[in-house]
Amino acid sequence: MRTRFASTLLATVLGSAGLLSLAACGSGSDTGGSAAPASAAGKVAVVASTDVYGSIASAVGGDLVEVSSLIDSPNADPHEYESTPADAATVAKAALVVVNGGGYDDFASRLVESSGTKATVIDAVQLSGLPGAPEAGHAGASSPPDPDGHAHGEFNEHVWYRLPAVRTVADEIAKDLGAADPANAATYTANAQRFGTDLDGLQQKVDAIKAAHDGQRIAVTEPVPLYLTEAAGLQNATPEEFSEAVEEGTDPAAAVLASALQVVEGPDPVKALVANSQTESPSTQKIEDAAKAEGVPLVEVSETLPDGVDSYVAWQGAQLDALAGALNGAA
User: Check: CATH 3.40.50.1980 for 211-330?
Assistant: First the structure.
């Protein structure tokens, strides 16, 4: 079982200031109903499966929406989260529900199906347009080669680490909020455009890493950050069997662990180890200890926002700054 604990990235962030494929759902879909539900304050009610998507919805909706994130703690695991009757009631009253999809937050899929909600549903994986996305979340599904010809195993559902996918989600949120609240449609569109400009700033950080470190090798404990590190031109040297075992909460075989240690301890060690700060196991601890002993910089990333942080852009900006700093120091 994966052990969750609070992210140690908080100080850095503050310092740097189913739905898998619902039959009627391609990207965003209306599950029925006419008038958009509103909160008691008269705001459009939006529900997100995690605070990552909640923060994006808040950036687009501003003070015109009331956003409820079903998971808003770094100690909760979306893979294992058990929804509550209160969650079902919240979803039932929503005008818009935003989920990751792809099998990541299945609890949200079940809530939508069981709550009788009339909400429009946005599925980030389905919106991403990535190879394998239409099949993602189905048992045994794997992704075909990407546009660069690289074949992959299981689909990487962590699409909030892919900036173009996040932009698409924000634009879809603006469109669907505008449909629910036509009087303020222009405001939602303008907010999404501003958010897109902020994403451009993150992309500049990615491009700067690529310009300085294109082709350099890194290791990861899980596939969580791979969309971002690949966009930065970094090569993942971790044995796939190791990172998949960690993600699934199982112990990798001894030979697999030895291979993973070799990319850190071997004659050509990686330039950085990027670790999921919300997952701890004996295997990940061994890799992190080996990295420390060999002087390989450790960069922590997370799946949800650290405590006290509510901005997607600030969160990702801090992580990119940490990655760039580690690579610059290792160069």
Answer: yes
